[in-house]
């Protein structure tokens, strides 16, 4: 059985990404290891008094993201695919690669919107970053709208 690391961001393409990862896991007898990386600055805001930290905002956001991860895990388990999940805060690329190494992953499954050029200059692409940096194969699933 292989471990398949599946980073999710709860965006509108998450359902398509889950469908693709489930199909791949069934074909490879794999286990899905869901991971969501939350920004390290969730509870910070800029106001009249400069930067302020609101721990209750961070706690509520983390609680909601854990609920979303649990729902995705249940959806995957319902497809008879073993699944676990993890939520961490920090720099997404670094944390995903670290988690994939810890899980001795056979694959990292990522989505691609097919954007390039100026979009990558201003926004960047986590999928592009991971395909460059990862020693573990990255399976890219097209998730065009």
UniProtKB/TrEMBL annotation:
It comes from the Bacteria. Signal peptide: none annotated. It holds the Pfam family Usp. Residues 3-142 form the UspA domain. Belongs to the universal stress protein A family. This is Universal stress protein. InterPro entries: Rossmann-like_a/b/a_fold, Universal_stress_UspA, UspA.
């Amino acid at each position: 059985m292989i471990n398949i690391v599946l980073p999710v961001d709860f965006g509108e393409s998450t359902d398509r990404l889950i469908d693709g990862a489930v199909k791949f896991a069934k074909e490879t007898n794999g286990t899905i290891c869901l991971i969501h990386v939350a920004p390290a600055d969730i509870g910070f805001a800029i106001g009249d008094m400069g930067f302020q930290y609101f721990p209750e905002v961070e706690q509520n956001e983390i609680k909601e993201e854990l609920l979303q991860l649990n729902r995705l895990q249940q959806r995957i388990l319902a497809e008879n695919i073993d699944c676990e999940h993890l939520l961490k805060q920090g720099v997404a690329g670094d944390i995903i690669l670290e988690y994939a190494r810890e899980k001795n992953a056979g694959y990292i499954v990522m989505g691609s919107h097919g954007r390039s050029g100026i979009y990558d200059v201003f926004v960047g692409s986590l999928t592009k970053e991971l395909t460059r940096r990862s020693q573990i194969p990255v399976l890219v699933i097209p998730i065009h709208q």
